[in-house]
Design goal:
This protein has a single domain (about 10-310), classed as Alpha/Beta hydrolase fold, catalytic domain (Rossmann fold), CATH 3.40.50. The chain is built from eleven helices and eight strands. The protein has helices at about 65-70, 100-115, 130-140, 170-180, 185-190, 200-205, 215-220, 235-245, 265-275, 290-295, 295-310; strands at about 25-30, 35-45, 50-55, 80, 120-125, 145-150, 250-255, 285. Strand 3 (about 50-55), helix 1 (about 65-70) and strand 4 form a beta-alpha-beta unit.
């Protein structure tokens, strides 16, 4: 059987997006059923500078970090913000069944290896945590520290190793809704996860990568890949990553926002269970919802800069 061709959003759709002047960069990653997939990333700063790797989640793309990238520019840091496959300027797979949790992890692994990234400050939000922390646990020698904001690493374990009543009504409803939906309004969902009103042009920018519902298969299936039971794919690997985090001295800082009911309970688990989180100056970002990068990018950028420059 010939390898499948992915969908690719026309580059012209991305012209003149508000606050996103960054030059595109691309590399290819491998999927067993497809021709090589083009993966997009923002890359600002000198190649010799310490790396800040900004990982987005669902249903966003690197546009989410535009204000953080701008705030960190010119600070002697190399800022890298990839679009996961199925998101942003990266290729989109044809069917929901073509996506898997392991595939996302492997894409990021390929990405880090191809760019030969070292001395990485991992900044992870939403699905950026479950993906990024798995990659970190497999190649820790490449990472200098973690800044976790509004994220999680599901393990389906009882407190204090996990959280009570996992996954909770909000995540259950989100999984059920996206599993049944044939299309979703990306920009409106991002707005619903913010505490501040987004400009209409900003909200529309989140929809730009998806000309129609065919391009959204990754966005529609991503929530269903969250391991919400102990028998789901990813739980064994996530528990292995937790075991690594319990033993690792890699500094781990939490910077959760004050208005995010979906991930708030994970903050304490990270702080108490991760060895590298002990004794750290954890931060709380005020006046921000789940999309902290939209609501309070300045504080997030300040925390990143403080940790990268002074440590």
């Amino acid at each position: 059987m010939l390898p499948k061709l992915p969908l690719r959003t026309d580059e012209t759709r991305f012209h003149n997006l508000p606050g996103y002047p960054f030059q595109p960069h691309y590399l290819n990653v491998i999927h067993p059923a497809y021709q090589p997939l083009r993966m997009h990333y923002v890359d600002e700063g000198r190649a010799t500078d310490p790396v800040v790797l900004l990982l987005h989640g669902c249903p966003t793309w690197s546009y989410l970090y535009r204000k953080v990238i701008s705030a960190l520019s010119g600070k002697s840091l190399r800022i890298i913000a990839p679009d996961f496959i199925g998101c942003g300027k990266s290729d989109k797979l044809l069917a929901r069944t073509d996506y898997s949790y392991d595939f996302y992890v492997d894409c990021l692994r390929q990405f880090v290896l191809q760019l030969d990234l070292q001395n990485i400050t991992l900044v992870c939000q939403d699905w950026g945590g479950p993906i990024g922390l798995r990659v970190l646990s497999n190649m820790p020698e490449r990472f200098a520290r973690v800044i976790a904001t509004n994220t999680l690493l599901p393990n389906c374990e009882a407190p204090p190793r996990g959280i009570a009543n996992w996954p909770g009504d909000i995540i259950k409803q989100w999984v059920q809704f996206t599993a049944q939906a044939q299309d979703i309004p990306i920009g409106k969902i991002v707005q619903g996860s913010c505490t501040r009103k987004l400009d209409d042009a900003v909200q529309a920018a989140y929809d730009v990568p998806f000309p129609d519902a065919r391009y959204k298969q990754g966005m529609l299936v991503w929530p269903s890949l969250i391991p919400i039971t102990a028998t789901m794919p990813g739980i064994i690997e996530n528990r292995r990553a937790w075991k690594f985090l319990e033993q690792s001295n890699i500094p781990f800082i939490t910077a959760f926002s004050d208005h995010d009911p979906t991930t708030a309970a994970w903050e304490k688990v990270f702080q108490t269970r991760v060895r590298g989180a002990q004794g750290q100056a954890h931060q709380r970002i005020n006046n921000a919802g789940h999309m902290v990068q939209e609501d309070n990018a300045d504080d997030l950028a300040r925390i990143i800069l403080q940790r990268c420059i002074t440590h």
